[in-house]
């Protein structure tokens, strides 16, 4: 059992609350899938953890037996069960870690020096590590990140670390644009200026890779239009309802675009995310703009919904 130290709120939590996401969600259940804390009690068969240890939770528990798990896709396991969806999550004072999660190694020991709200962000960073790999970004690439929410700001940092020669971030909010500039974006633009910026920077050929980090259908079309021939378009964000978008399939055909999706993470992505945070290679501290007590969780959700900050951490 973990004493929750911090649980950061996520767009998926908001989509569950609004009833837009129902798949894999048990009702009623305690939300919260981005959390870390201190071990409060240790079960009889548990090894490797002691009371008082800090630990961080990879919330997606794969079955390790289905065809997807066997083909290196445990993130889309057919029988996956997740904390904050099927199992009660981290928006509580204490959270019980299921035996199957302990058996799969989903609870990771964490460095006592790292603040717990930063450890909680290993979850979105792990999903971003997965998306980064899917987006095929290579040394010298010009990368387009659409949206400077938490995910876009993490993608920006991973692209820079991977050696992108330029990272263009498109974002309507001036305050979020300022954070993107601080975290290393070479070009930060409002959506209206995006097409002209890409044209000027790439001599009209388009970017090498683009990542859609905001769930607005039209943005998928923008990414397809602004990515060069044989480039990669990654659809990271979940779209509302069934996610239907009217796309020009001929653009994919003639441009030989590679269109990829990203869903959740592998346990190895989570382990890598913890290392990137521990080494200070990815700045997650700048993303935590608000901390609220558990008693103010409703206000915390309203704040997250408003989009004025970046990440809201609920601290029991
Ligand atoms: Zn999340
Ligand atoms: Zn599986």
UniProtKB/TrEMBL annotation:
PROSITE patterns for this protein: ADH_ZINC (PS00059)
Cofactor: Zn(2+)
Keywords: Metal-binding, Oxidoreductase, Zinc
One Pfam family named in its UniProt record: ADH_N
Coiled-coil ranges from the UniProt annotation: none
Domain Alcohol dehydrogenase-like N-terminal intervals: 2-102
GO molecular function annotations of the record: oxidoreductase activity; zinc ion binding
InterPro entries: ADH-like_C (IPR013149), ADH-like_N (IPR013154), ADH_Zn_CS (IPR002328), GroES-like_sf (IPR011032), NAD(P)-bd_dom_sf (IPR036291), Zn_alcohol_dh (IPR050129)
Residue ranges annotated for the Alcohol dehydrogenase-like C-terminal domain, each copy included: 150-277
Protein family per UniProt: Belongs to the zinc-containing alcohol dehydrogenase family.
PANTHER family, per the entry: L-THREONINE 3-DEHYDROGENASE
Name of the protein this chain belongs to: L-iditol 2-dehydrogenase
Organism of origin: Amycolatopsis marina
